[in-house]
Every structure is written in structure tokens, then in C-alpha cells.
């Protein structure tokens, strides 16, 4: 069965600094990996995904993520954080046609 | 706006009651997923339908049931409600049944059981 770990419950970063939100996964086959963001009282919004190909994928709002097969990681990154990036971030994995399995989420706080 | 519509947005009901949550997927999406989000359990997959047929089942209680209708909208029925069922219930849809297709989420139904 697939699983996702987000080792940090909370990440704090100063505005303008780079940010990283960590995610590691476990699947039996080839992974399909996703990042979602949730703002207060809102649903999850899709940010980006990795299916195959280039290990660096770019997504919405300037976010990108790097797939690392040997470390089974898919960390979310942004070169320069904005206060408006403060939200709850979820990493998710799918193995073939199975439903998305989500991590517990990481709360990102960007401080002005 | 994701294109996924959930009603109602908020629901307050008493223990022992039954409620129905409704979801309209994005136009063209055949797959519907239901998730439960609570503070202590995170985002838990409940059930998936694809083109009217049940595709996968997760941590869904026997008191809960769901269906997808011919017009592809879906309903999640929760019965004999307990205080612990209070949570945010999300519906998501995707064009395909899995693989690389991302799922788009509705804004959720916040259920409070009192």
C-alpha cells in the first residue's frame, strides 16, 4: 500500500526567503506524486504533479517540486516566499489507478 | 473555482440523525472521490466511484454509504451520526479513474454533530 510522510507539521520562513516543504513517499510501483494547498475554510487546490520525465516540475504560483527516486522524496520549493503563501500544504501519492493518499499536511507560515 | 460543487456548505445535526451530502463533479469528469478531513486523522479517503460504479473503498464506516447517479453527481449518506463524525467532508473529481490525473476538490461540507 502506498503512503506519504510529511515530516514537519509546521514550517516558518521569512518573506523573500526560499522555502522547502518536505515529502517522502512509499509505493510498490511507479509513483504519481501531487502537491495541493489548502487555505482556511477552502478546499484543496492542485499545485503540481509528477508523472514521468523531468525530475523538476513547475506548478502554480511559482512553486516547483523535485522528484528524487533514490531518496523517494518529492519536496516542494519556492525561490522567494510570499506572505500569501501561508497555508496548509499536502503531498499526495497514487500508485496506478488507486485513489490519492495524502500526507498529514504541513502548515507553512511566511512572516513579513 | 475548481468546478466541483458541494452542498450544503455547513450542516449541524444531532446525534443519531442521518444526513446526505451532495457533490456535482466538474463537467466531463467521470470519477468522484469522497474524503473526510478531521484535525486528528488528516485527510482520509472514504470511497471512489467511476462512471456510476464503485471503484475503491477506503476507511468508510458501515453507517456511511455513497452512490453516483447517471448524471454523475454523487451523494454521501451518513447515518446514526456520532459526535466523532464531525468533520469536513470533501468531494473531488477527475477525468479518469486514476494514474496521472489530478483530482479537483470542492469546498467541502462542514458537518457538526451535536
Can you tell me about this structure?
Chain A is an all-beta fold and 112 residues long. Chain A is built from no helices and twelve strands. In chain A, strands 2, 5, 6, 10, 11 and 12 form a six-stranded mixed sheet that branches. A four-stranded antiparallel sheet of chain A has the order 3-9-8-7, with no helix packed on it. A two-stranded antiparallel ribbon of chain A has the order 1-4. Chain A is globular and about 40 Å long. The mean pLDDT of chain A is 94. Chain B is mainly beta and 114 residues long. In chain B, the strands form two sheets. In chain B, strands 2, 4, 5, 6, 9, 10 and 11 form a seven-stranded mixed sheet that branches. In chain B, strands 1-3-8-7 form a four-stranded antiparallel sheet, with no helix packed on it. In chain B, strand 4 (31-38) and strand 5 form a beta hairpin. The mean pLDDT of chain B is 94. The interface between A and B is medium-sized, with 24 and 24 residues.
Provide a brief overview of the structure:
Chain A is mainly β. Chain A has strands at 3-5, 10-14, 19-21, 24-26, 31-38, 44-50, 56-58, 64-68, 73-78, 87-95, 101-102, 106-111.
Topology:
The complex is a heterodimer of chains A (112) and B (114).
Chain A: E1 3-5, E2 10-14, E3 19-21, E4 24-26, E5 31-38, E6 44-50, E7 56-58, E8 64-68, E9 73-78, E10 87-95, E11 101-102, E12 106-111
Parallel strand pairs in A: 2-12
Antiparallel strand pairs in A: 1-4, 3-9, 5-6, 5-10, 7-8, 8-9, 10-11, 10-12
Chain B: E1 5-7, E2 10-13, E3 19-24, E4 31-38, E5 42-50, E6 53-57, E7 64-68, E8 74-78, E9 87-94, E10 104-105, E11 109-113
| Proportion of residues in β-strands of chain B | over 45%
Distance between the termini of chain B: 31 Å
Overall number of strands of chain B: 11
Helix content of chain B: under 10%
Q: For the CA atoms, what is the radius of gyration of chain A?
A: 13 Å
Distance between the termini of chain A: 41 Å
Number of strands of chain A: 12
Instruction: Please give the share of residues in helix of chain A.
Output: under 10%
How big a fraction of the residues of chain A is strand? over 45%
Helical/strand content category of chain A: mainly beta
Spans of at least 5 consecutive residues with low confidence of chain B: none
Please work out how many helical segments of chain A DSSP would assign: 0
- Give helix and strand order of chain B, one letter per element, not per position: EEEEEEEEEEE
So how many helices of chain B? 0
Q: Biggest interface, which chains?
A: A-B, 24 and 24 residues
Mean pLDDT of chain B: 94
Q: What does the oligomeric state look like here?
A: heterodimer
Rough shape of chain B? globular
Amino acid at each position: 500500500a502506498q503512503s506519504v510522510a510529511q515530516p514537519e507539521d509546521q514550517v516558518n520562513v521569512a518573506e523573500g526567503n526560499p522555502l522547502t516543504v518536505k515529502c517522502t513517499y512509499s509505493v510498490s510501483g511507479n509513483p504519481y506524486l501531487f502537491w495541493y494547498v489548502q487555505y482556511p475554510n477552502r478546499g484543496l487546490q492542485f499545485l503540481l504533479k509528477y508523472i514521468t520525465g523531468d525530475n523538476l516540475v513547475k506548478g502554480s504560483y511559482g512553486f516547483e517540486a523535485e522528484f528524487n527516486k533514490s531518496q523517494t522524496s518529492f519536496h516542494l520549493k519556492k525561490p522567494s516566499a510570499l506572505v500569501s503563501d501561508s497555508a496548509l500544504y499536502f503531498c499526495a501519492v497514487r500508485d496506478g489507478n488507486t485513489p490519492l493518499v495524502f500526507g498529514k499536511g504541513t502548515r507553512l507560515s511566511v512572516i513579513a | 473555482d475548481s468546478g466541483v460543487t458541494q452542498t450544503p456548505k455547513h450542516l449541524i445535526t444531532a446525534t443519531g440523525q442521518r444526513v446526505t451530502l451532495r457533490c456535482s463533479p466538474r463537467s466531463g469528469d467521470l470519477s468522484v472521490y469522497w474524503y473526510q478531513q478531521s484535525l486528528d486523522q488528516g485527510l482520509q479517503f472514504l470511497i471512489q466511484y467511476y462512471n456510476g460504479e464503485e471503484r475503491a473503498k477506503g476507511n468508510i464506516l458501515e453507517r456511511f454509504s455513497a452512490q453516483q447517479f447517471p448524471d454523475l453527481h454523487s451523494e454521501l449518506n451518513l447515518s446514526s451520526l456520532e459526535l466523532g463524525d464531525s468533520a469536513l467532508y470533501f468531494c473531488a473529481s477527475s477525468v479518469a479513474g486514476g494514474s496521472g490525473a489530478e483530482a479537483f476538490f470542492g469546498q467541502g461540507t462542514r458537518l457538526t454533530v451535536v
